[in-house]
Every structure is written in structure tokens, then in C-alpha cells.
Amino acid sequence: MNKFFSLHALVMIFSVSLLGNSKPNIVLIYVDDLDFDQVSVYDQQKFPSYTGAKETGNLKELNPITANQNGRFLKVGEMPYHKNAQVLTPHIASLAEEGVTFNRFYLTSSTCTPSRYSLLTGRYASRAPLLLKDNPPGSVPLIAWNANMDPLENNLAKDLKSAGYKTALVGKWHLSNYDIAEIDFEKGFKGHHLNSEKSKKLLPHQLVGSYFPLTADYGSGEVQDELERIYGIMQRRVKRISGFDVVDRLYYANYGELPMPKHMKVHNLEWLTEGALNYIEDNKDNPFFLYFSITAPHGQYFEDWMEKDWRATPAGMLKEKPKGMPSRESVLQRIDKACLPRQNAMATWIDDSVGAILTKLKKSGLADNTMVLFVSDHQSRGKLTTYEGHRAPAIIHWPKMVNKGVVEEGIFSNIDILPTLLDLAKGQSPKGSLCDGQSFLPMLKGEKLEDWRESILLETSYSRAIVHKDWKYMANRPPQWVLDKMEEDQLETQKSGARRHVGWSGRTTNAASGMGIRFNADQDFPYYFDADQLYNLGEDVFEQKNIIMNPENKKRLEELKKKLESHINDLPHHFGEFGSVHH
Fold first, then answer.
1. What residue segments make up the domains of the chain, in order of their start?
2. Class of domain 26-176+217-455
3. Which of 59, 233, 328, 550 would disulfide-bridge 54, Cβ 3.0–4.6 Å?
4. How many CA atoms does the CB half-sphere of 397 hold within 13 Å?
């Protein structure tokens, strides 16, 4: 009897273990501001990026000194494109060679917070409850860094947990504000803001970023203790809001605006990667979901990350080097050996992180049964606009199911990730939950997608756009106060001959930055200030020719406006003349 019971128990244990591993693991790598020219997968001249624009004669160049000041973190003499278009990204290339490459993958918003909101919820950012609280139906919401996540709404972490997955966020969050009772940002570290006239003029997020004075000794125990305290508070907050089982190696937001001494505001990709590898090791016997949200490149086309302190993290200064990635020195050795500019090194650094993940999965025997998604949150070119900054690299690798070397030309989006992964996990969102995306799992399995979308809505700033096959219609409809501010700025620049500094978002760019509009959109897109724009993406992927006035496009324009109207009607707010009266 005992022998029978023991054998029966072993069979049951084996069966449960087999069942537990039958669900595919999921690793979702979400990269920050990654452009098409940062991976060796896409044809630079056919996909929108700075390097592609340069190579095709579609980039208006500023002088190097101005470029150094233009907000792209460039060194003196550098310009915002690769001087040599070749990048060393063999691991990312292997994902494409063995998986599916998306040529038309769109982020519904082109800034960090709303892009991440839509990724994790499957919903347009304009639906975010906290955004709706400040922008009720009847108003026109600014879609920028304000689509924070509400702890009561469902998301990928919660839904996959209900489907039997262990879940983790490693890396950047950027989906919460700084209204944190336990941290007095207005006072600053040891009250230094109270004694500063400059601090009285700072915006709330600037008070956070300057929480420690510039003179703070980052090596002191007092500063390190405070960093550890702040990190713990933010870590617990993100875990509570998001529902992830594990929140590790957290960047609460962009490192530049985090409450850390200036010396410590760096990308630390080795630290993040080590956290991801540890999570995979700890959960290799159970189905897991890893949201690996890396902070790099964010700004791109620069190499100063090599010179930063590898010890610096939001959780404090490390005492030992993180394990799992090749050294930074080896990145430069490979770049130099290939006779490439060191400006290209960031791409290889990111590729090394991806390679470490793939190696870990392989050595753990998990590679065949793990879906790896490599997606950018948006591009740096066209950020905070509805230009093709919404369109970015996306690759899915799943050896167990996906055919090798597939190139998908359909229009897909970050709002499709949640329904697709829930379909994969045989899970579902709570009853009554909204989802704007669709599952494309059948396509990954080699099946034809019936009635797949032909168009998608893009929403950023006070702008909306409809992309339909090779055509895009863009509409800018800000509130009157923005229009008044833009007109005043235009009149001033007509007198002075300077560049304009107020864009469709209503933000004023500091002239001393060397930029015109935020992120230099007025430089990159010649028709930026047109309220209505029409582009044939098949012929003009860099969006340099607004053909809205061409008589032969009149019928197509009306069709696109109707499509935009139908999308707006599904969302909470009206938009200019678009949207029915129920809004």
C-alpha cells in the first residue's frame, strides 16, 4: 500500500509539474526611445529614423554646437544620426531571423507614460481613470506624461497572475505621480529647498529631481540611507498599484527626474539585467511573466553611458559589479574592431542585455517554451507628436510555435499585447473590463487573421492621427489658450527671426536649449505647424510633404476623416469637430 501510494504520489507530482510548465513563459522587453536605426533588422532608408532621414536627404541639420544643446544628450560635434549606419546587434537580429518582425507596429502614444499605460492595459491612454479625473468627457485631454495607472484597474500583471503566472517588473515604471506622503519633496533632503530662492520657482517634478542638493555627498552613509528609504517606498507603491508579484531594480521614472544625487543619475543596464536573470532563475519551474522595462537608450546617439559610475542605482551605490553581461569595455572593443563610431555603442550594449536573457533561457531549458517580445515604447524622432515616432521596432520570438523569419506587414499595436498574451496564457480580464486591442495569437501560430484592422488611431499631445494602410491624416486641435500662446510666439519670432518655441502641446521650450519646439519637431517635420496634414507613407515615410491641398486627395481625405471620427466616437472625449454629441 505504501509503495503504491508513493508511486501514485510521484505520478501526481510529475503530472502537476508537467502541467505547470505547459504554459509558455513570457519575457516582454520594452525599450525606451529605441529607433529603427538602433537595431540591425530594418532597412534604414525605408523606415523612419534620423539616420534614414540623413541618408535620404530628409534631415535638416543644425550646426554641431546647437546639436550639442538640443536635448539629445550629444557630445560636441555630434549630430542626431549614426555617421555609419551599421550597428552590432546580433542577438536582436537572431530574434528576427528566428521569429516575427513587425514592419508596421504602432504605439498608440509617442511618450513614455501613455505608451506604457496602453501596453499594460490594452486601452488607449485617454481612457485612463486618473487622466479622466482631471479631463472629464467634454474636455480635450493632453496626452503626455499624465496617463498614470489606477490601482483599481486591471492590467497584464493582474490578469496573468489570475491565469497562473508569477509576474515581475524589472526596470522602469513611469506610471505614477510623486504624491507620496512619506517623502517631502517640497522640503528636499534636510530641508535644503526651504532655504533656496531657486527652489521656489521649480515645478513639482523638478522639486523631485533636485531633492538632493548638487553638493550632496553621494558616498555618505546618510545619503545612502535616505536613498534606500525612498527606493523602498517607491518599490512598495509600484507593487501595490501594479499588482506585480515582484518589483525589482526599479526606476520609478526617468533617472534624470528621480530623487538621487546628480552623480547617480545614470543608465545601469547591467544592474537591471542581473535582476531579470535572477528572476528567471528563481521562477524557472513555474510559468512566469517578466516585464523587462529597460531605461536605455532614452535620447540615443550618445556614448557617455560608458563613462558613468557602474555602482550607481536608484537603490543606492553597489559594492560589487552586477553579473550576467559582458563588460562595457568589451562593447567598445567590438565597436572599435568593426571600425564603427563609438556613438554606435549604445545599440550593442542593449543587444548584450538581450543576449544575456536569451542565454539564460537556453541554459535553463526554457528557450523553446518562452515567448520573447522585443518592443520599443516609441521612437525619439517625432516624440510628443503624431508623426512616425509612434511607429517603432517590434519583434516576437517563440521557437515552439512561430515560423522563422516571418515579416508581418499588417498594422499592429501595443494595445494588442494584453489580449494576445492573455490568449496565449488561456486567461482573461475581469468581466466588464475594456480592451481596445485585439489578439494576434493566431497569426503567430501561422493562421490567417480574419478581419484584421486596416487603420489605427494615434493620440499624443493635443493631436490625433489615423493611419490607414499607406496613408496618414493628422489633426491638431488644442484648446484656445494653446492657440493664443502659439500665435503670440509666432508674432514674436517674426520680429526677431528666431525659431518658434511653442508647439501643439502648449509647452514653451527654453530658447537657450538650442531647440525650437520640444524635441525639435519643427526642425524634423517642415509642416509641423499645419493644423491638418496628409501623408502618403508609401512614398514619404519621413513625412516631409504635406499633400492635403492636392485636389486628387480630396476623396481620400474625407474617408480618413470619417475613420478618425469613428475612432474618436469610441473614446470618452470629443476632439475638435470630431466626436458625436454624447461626448
1. 26-176+217-455, 463-569
2. alpha beta
3. 59
4. 22
